[in-house]
């Protein structure tokens, strides 16, 4: 099928073209613009599903952009091309990213009232950047998509054009630009040494002849990706940004951070075991994860601003993924049931984090829409006037805290169980972090929904926004009740794709 | 679709929890239904924590819920609050610090290249 053949390119091209077209569509009318954006996102989602269904059986799509006979060849004889790769892992990540973008896009059609054309252009560019990052097969394209993502994100963070939102966007732009600059420096080092930028080709060479240059380059790239994912101590931009950006943007931004985590592990798993540094690197990443959990939850407990609190909670949740996958990397022998379990738990947690945190930020947006104020500290006792919203908000809070029988529990169970096998202490700290997370969300729920009835007037939540929130809640419940299905269909093939780097490299070369 | 979820050392079945929660709910409803049906629903007697007194306008603020925890962790918070000062130069400083740690680990982690 030709659509499937071109799926990796279409996943980037559709939102990219839709982004530029949305400026013109706005001239027809706001409804036409909203319909166009939702249509473009639905089309992208359909292709993401097609790709996912195809790769679940073990197939791999390698898509080269360029002439059929390469005209430009590097000094080492390697054809210069843009390579996109769709395997079980990257297809899963792009599916999750596009799904969150679709739901956030539908939510925005009612949530964003002014300046829709600017919002959607940037929003679709951000979506295209995420899709590109998930599918990229070479280092330079990775840099380009990271830039695309950062610039569109900065525009969206400042969308409400308030003093503090400009400040948040400025901070994000500064930190992000510096991170990407370091990444480009790392990519330059690799290009200088090997003469090509294809990730698989560089990995195959670097794993065999790992040198000082490779170490520095890999550290530069990893630092930029850790910054993107918001791991401690490079997390400081996250609460500032999440506090000020529009709710649907935050949902997509945090998903883009998870795409950064995916890219980090994609690169590390290809190079680090072969270079013989997996124990040191894996332990460091797991350590960063542990510190992220601790700092994230303790800082979240202290916050007065709800969105800032959620920003720190997102830092802690990223910590769980880093801890699980870092531990699996440090062991490097994926023959062990527990190391595979840790790896699968981490990958499963990427899906759950995107759903749970994405939902919570949209739900916070819904709360501010219903109560007609952006100052969430003014909202108290909302459960009296919006009981339905309070129930679905509570389900989301329980899911992110890892309470059974919701989706967050299953992935955390896998992580805690395997961590206990490697080090009971790690498991205890991770468990305490999860308990603290529940304590944080008790505070969140108490501050917004409980207490004497909300005194202000409330407006009805539009059906479209309610539909999006219900979709999230249903997914949480379904995954919570059938975690085995998700693990079998999505997580296990993704973990196999991550660990079989030889097959990935061979497939691309 | 089977809800049974097998992990590395055991299994988890959300249906068991659902059944247990449903049973607990049924028991709670059964106990509640045995209560005095003639009890007045107005007044303060339903407010367990106010002993019939007038409900205060302002409850304990959510920010004060974990006061004891913050007091015991004060030395830790003094340090991390300095880290989270909102100054973008410091954000870059922490990023560079992370980068240095990463370079040391990647370069000297295995010493295989030496």
Q: Notable features of this structure?
A:
heterodimer; A: 509 residues; mainly alpha; two-stranded antiparallel sheet; 20 helices; B: 114 residues; 4 helices; 50% helix; 4% strand; flat
Explain the overall architecture.
The complex is a heterodimer of chains A (509) and B (114). Chain A is mostly helical and 509 residues long. Chain A has one domain (2-508). In chain A, 78% of the residues lie in helices and 2% in strands. Chain A is built from 20 helices and two strands. Chain A has helices at residues 2-5, 7-25, 30-55, 88-111, 116-135, 139-157, 163-194, 199-208, 212-229, 237-244, 247-275, 278-302, 306-331, 337-371, 387-400, 407-422, 424-449, 463-481, 483-499, 501-508, and strands spanning 61-65, 82-86. In chain A, α15 (387-400) packs parallel to α18. Chain B is mainly α and 114 residues long. Chain B has a domain at 68-114. Chain B has helices at residues 14-33, 67-72, 74-83, 88-108; strands spanning 5-6, 11-12. A two-stranded antiparallel ribbon of chain B has the order 1-2. In chain B, β1 (5-6) and β2 (11-12) form a beta hairpin. Chain B is flat. In chain B, 12% of the residues are buried. The model of chain B has no long low-confidence stretch (mean pLDDT 82).
